[in-house]
Amino acid sequence: MNEVTAINRTQPEYSDAVKKALARAPQLYINGEWVDSTGDATIDVEDPSTGKVVSKVVEASDKDVDRAVAAARTAFDDRRWRDMPPVAREKIMHKIADLILANAEELAELEAIDVGKPKGMASAVDVPGAAAHFTYMAGWAGKIGGETQAPYSMPGGMMFAYTLKEPVGVCAQIVPWNFPLLMACLKIAPALAAGCTTVLKPAEQTSLTALRLADLIHEAGVPAGVVNIITGYGHTGGDRMVKHPDVDKVAFTGSTEIGKLINRNATETLKHVTLELGGKSPVVVMPDVDVAETAPGVAGAIFFNSGQVCVAGSRLYAHKSVFDKVVEGMAETKDFWAPRPSLDPDAHMGPVVSSEQFDRVMGYIDAGKRDGASVLMGGDSPGGDGYYVNPTILTDVNPQMSVVREEIFGPVVVAQRFDDLDEVVKDANNTQYGLAAGVWTKDVSAAHKIASRLQAGSVWVNCHAMIDPALPFGGYKESGVGHEQGRLGLEAYLETKSVLMKL
Ligand code: NAI
Ligand code: MG
Predict the structure, then answer these.
(1) Which residues form ligand 1's pocket by a CB distance below 6 Å?
(2) Ligand positioned closest to the Cα atom of 174
């Protein structure tokens, strides 16, 4: 790991635009206005590349949550958004996308400072992706409709019957810290297209881009109260949102543990719920692959965003005939993925998001070593003030080990060999999770066979984490409930009403 220690891990200076954003007074965006909290609690914002506190955000009080929900309720009930001509709603949503792209530099830098992800990556992935969710869903705003349907048990001509598609109501949207802006947009866009109103809470670790997004949503002309953005902790503010009697739908992305809790809490008032949860996604490498292409691909599947990706390819299954070559090829990407400060132009991987996450990831690596896993690469931290973890490959693992069973959410892959297709499908499916999976092969028949047999909401062939606004995204098993994105993602924000009229 000599070359890793040679890296200068000094975070470059922040831009003036970002310094201004960091210096803002901690406030909440409620009912179309920036308002002070009714309490005085704040949460420190840390730059994980340095471990330094760079700003503060509000820790929403119960009253703040109630105020935000009340604003969303009123805005929904007086129909100020849902009754606007769809063409006008569509234009506003396009305007949000345009403003996101016009502020791309600042948003990418803020995200880099808040999450620790390389700014170049935020510019290439997070910011354009965020805008794309708005433009994609904007197109649906004017294309929502029910259908006429002849009743089955009644004579023809007796009834006129049709269905109406209506917005579900007030939404509580709770997002995690790994893709804060992208997730906020992925949640808000379908709600707006459907005609809903919302209260969105970013994760307590990463609130900055959601707050800037509130500025842009305001500037685009979204009416007051339609989108409210509040900051705060999950077990307090988030919990109150989920249990609030005036909320009709909860949309959550985060850990499976909290997803289950939210599902229970939302059941009390029978809210609509969509949950996008954790994963331990298998990546299957077949014997026929071109190793030179596949090894960097499967390395990227785990090291992208420091492995803090719900669909991270964290369990590698390579056929025994190519296993050694594949893991050697992955190890050759060590310098490319060596962790650097998020604003370093050479960074491809940054630190992990927080000291808590650092301890969690290092704890898993240590547990893996104790359980007898071999460290083929990494397995340690390069040190420094930030929360840097070296990209890590563990071999000699077995299905009983916690590193194989549990979501680590860090740059750690467990690599295993397999003999035949039936065996690898069984092993790949031997998990509580079912979010995503990957297959690398030139054998078209094997690709389709494995894709159909893997229990996962998304399967990628010869690529990984290709997520697109038009394609439904959801989890099998304990990885989620319902779908986001695509037509199904819009449907999750719609109610269906049947109307029957006697002629
Ligand atoms: P978390 O699930 O606790 O937090 C995600 C969001 O839920 C945050 O906005 C948080 O404020 C909110 N939240 C927490 N408790 C809540 C509650 N009782 N009611 C309502 N909202 C609540 O995830 P955390 O603690 O940040 O990370 C722990 C682990 O979860 C990670 O190591 C990773 O394994 C997993 N995770 C998975 C993500 C995914 O995209 N699937 C994203 C983030 C974390
Ligand atoms: Mg938590």
Answers:
(1) 174-178, 201, 203-204, 233-235, 238-239, 242, 253-255, 258, 261-262, 277-278, 310, 360, 407, 409
(2) 1
| 257 a catalytic residue | no
Q: Residue 46 is which amino acid? A: E
pLDDT score of 187: 98
Q: Which two tokens stand for residue 97?
A: 């996308």
Which atom of ligand 1 lies closest to the CA of 357? 32
d(CA 310, ligand 2 centre) in Å: 15
Q: How far apart are alpha carbons 382 and 376 in whole angstroms?
A: 16
Summarize the confidence of residues 147-153 as an average pLDDT: 97
The Cα–Cα gap between 222 and 437 comes to 38
User: What pLDDT sits at residue 6?
Assistant: 79
Q: Whose CA is nearest to atom 29 of ligand 1?
A: 255
Please give the helix or strand (H or E) that residue 221 lies within, else none.
Answer: none
Name which residue sits closest to atom 28 of ligand 1, judged by CA: 255
Q: What is the signed CA dihedral for 417, 419, 421, 426, rounded to 10 degrees?
A: -60
> What are the pLDDT digits (tens) for 45-56?
999 999 999 999
Please give the sequence-ordered ranges of beta strands (E in DSSP) within 381-468, or none if there are none: 392-395, 412-418, 436-440, 458-461
Q: Mutation test of ligand 1: which of 62, 115, 174 has the most ligand atoms closer than 8 Å to its C-beta? A: 174
What confidence category does residue 2 fall into, taking pLDDT thresholds of 50, 70 and 90?
Answer: very low
Instruction: Say if CB 354 and CB 206 are below 8 A apart.
Output: no
Interval 427-485: pLDDT, tens: 999 999 999 999 999 999 999 999 999 999 999 999 999 999 999 999 999 999 999 99
Share of the chain above pLDDT 70, in %: 99
Where do the DSSP E strands lie in 150-300?
159-167, 170-174, 197-201, 227-229, 249-253, 272-276, 282-285
Is the distance from CB of 403 to CB of 372 less than 8 angstroms?
no
Residue type, 340: R
Average pLDDT over residues 268-286: 97
Provide the pLDDT for residue 313.
Answer: 98
pTM of the entire structure? 0.97
Report the separation in Å between the CA atom of 258 and the middle of ligand 1, taken as the mean of its atom positions. Answer: 6
The CA–CA distances, whole Å, from 271 to 89, 164, 171, 268 equal 25, 20, 10, 8
Catalytic residue selected from 310, 407, 478, 491: 310
Taking 60 as the threshold, does the pLDDT of residue 143 lie above it? yes
Which string of DSSP letters, residue by residue, matches 133-176? Answer: HHHHHHHHHT-----B---SSS-TTSEEEEEEEEE--EEEEE--
Q: Whose CA is nearest to atom 24 of ligand 1?
A: 255
CB 303 within 8 A of CB 465: no
Q: Is 310 a catalytic residue?
A: yes
Res 33 pLDDT > 80: yes
